[in-house]
Protein: Mandelate racemase
Amino acid sequence: MARIESIHLRMVDLAPKVERTDAIQSFVSQETPLVTITDSDGAVGQGYSYTIGTGGSSVMRLLSDHLCPRLLGREAEEVEAIWNDLEFATHATTVGAITSIALAAIDTALWDLRCRRAGLPLWQLAGGAKPQAPCYTTEGGWLHLPQSALIEDALQARAQGFKGSKVKIGKPSAAEDSARLGALRDAVGPEYEIMTDANQGFLRDGARRRALALAEHDLAWIEEPLAADDIAGHAELARVAPMPVAVGESLYSIRHFAEYVSRGAASIIQVDVGRIGGITPWLKVAHMAECHGLAVAPHFLMELHVSLVCAIRNGAWVEYIPQLDDIVGERLRIENGQAIAPETPGIGIDWDMAEIDRRAVAEFTTQIGRDT
Structure:
């Protein structure tokens, strides 16, 4: 056992690799808080989380002013106790995105430290169910793209071994969405999976009509058809939708997921480490889903989620959206459409710390503890 002696905070801003638009927004920036924890034996853990363009400064202030000082002197191996204590210390601001994003950056750093000290990769220490998992791509399915571009990207992905593509929906009419998906299905054939994502863009009547209109295209799922907190609406839709309903990227508590699961409001669970508060609660949601026979296909963060999908029995998919390429050395390995879980000790991300330091926003670069 070793006590936490210092925490180094940084934040970098990463621009998307391609233009990303969906039914409600454009993704123009990824603010990326990074937490480096060092213990009394000199072992180091690196964690992170993200925003999609707003809130990064608030996350960094919560980390520097309230959460990270509470880590000093704690036993680094007591990850569960630390997570619970930090959540309680911020109970006035939970459940909420800013707090969960901040907790995630700390928790992933503690898991990285734990794995490194154990000499094991995350996918093994967290369960070790399988060494690889299938990928689908979202990078060519954005809402602004013409139908021809959707088809071209999916065909290229299929040729590279990918098992599916996600297409954003939310065009002005169901007929337009259906035409795009129909042309895509004709191009890729029946074996290739097509996922759809509404990004909370519909009201209940529109979601029902859209789901029924798209039934003929044999969709893998319809994702976030309604506002994320409309559990009753999702439960109602799940009873009539011909395709599975997927939710999770906009949920910030294991209790939110428990309500969805208990009410049969989703059959694909898309729990996101960066938004649920870290690896500790992510694993709880994933195991809860397994107990109810539900698949887990996490949102975004492919570099981290590959290890967690491979850790659990019901891990179904890794979502291909490259976002860390500019601040890592070795990238996620994908072979014939399978994402390979990293074998190196830790959470499996090869951080380029020199590049991170070069990009770090000075205002939010903070040392807490030793060497302050």
In short: The chain has 13 helices and 14 strands. The mean pLDDT is 96. The chain has two domains: 4-119+352-369, 123-340. Residues 261 and 292 are 8 Å apart (CA to CA).
